[in-house]
Amino acid sequence: MSTQIELRHLTYFLAVAEELHFRKAAEKLFISQPGLSRQIKQMEELLQAKLFLRNNKKVELTPAGHYLKQRAADIFKQLKETQRELQLIGDGDTGELRIGFLGSAMQNIIPDLLVAVKDKYPKIKTSLEERSNLEQVDAILNNELDIGFVRLDRVPADLNMQTVFEDTFSLVLPETYPMLTREYTGMARFAEDNFILFSQDYSPYYYDTIMGICADAGFKPRVSHKSVHAHTIFKLVENKLGIAIVPTALQAGFQMRVKFIELKDVKQRALLSVIWKKENANPVLKNCMDLLLTRSSNKKRNVL
Known about the structure:
This protein has helices spanning 7-19, 22-29, 33-47, 63-88, 109-120, 133-141, 204-216, 230-238, 284-296; strands spanning 52-54, 59-61, 95-101, 124-130, 147-150, 159-167, 169-174, 194-198, 222-227, 244-247, 258-262, 270-277. With 304 residues, it is α/β, with parallel strands linked by helices.
């Protein structure tokens, strides 16, 4: 009999912990129920801890069982990540870069990065996931993403952050709004309009920045609708349900009955930043970051 805990013990334990039913767990593992029971008993003896409370009606985790369930899940997650990293070890020209992004990053930064990576490192695979700012932060901390493109003013200490694109903001009005774009004299005249904004939960920094733009003009905007998608915001503006303020780069790629006024007179800027984990061991990350940061230095807009 083994005198130490093995991965198979943890596999059997997690199956029972998730099912809370020995027969169902045994079927899931393709072993007999008595065999599974023996493995769990052996594990409890080795650990000198009771993991399950069992009677004829139900199976429950003990406090020790709850603790081990979380630790075992972490162990398998780390093993999976280690296996992935081992497959990527080399000179950083083969492997995968997992990218998180906000929709606005797709207008210029990400397409340029993907083309540059494909040209210089054709063996590197890239994958994309559109996520909110905070979802990207969590995913990078948990090693589910390698880099993310966010609009945040700060990130946890375990992450690096660098601005890769600086943009102005633009006012979005219905095409039939009773004002010509050349007649714009400042934000104050829009104090009575309804505003459509990106959700505060989706992008707190953006939301606070828009509040600052309006506050500088002497009013607090009346927010009638919120969304996480630029297309939805533009559609609401098109249907005269309010006006919006968005990063100027979002003008590209949308054909709708709206008009844009670039707010060159406001001090606030729409900053897009890249974030990555300081302890990320993915060997392709450095090569891809060097490409990104070199190219982005030529992309930042110097708006006066």
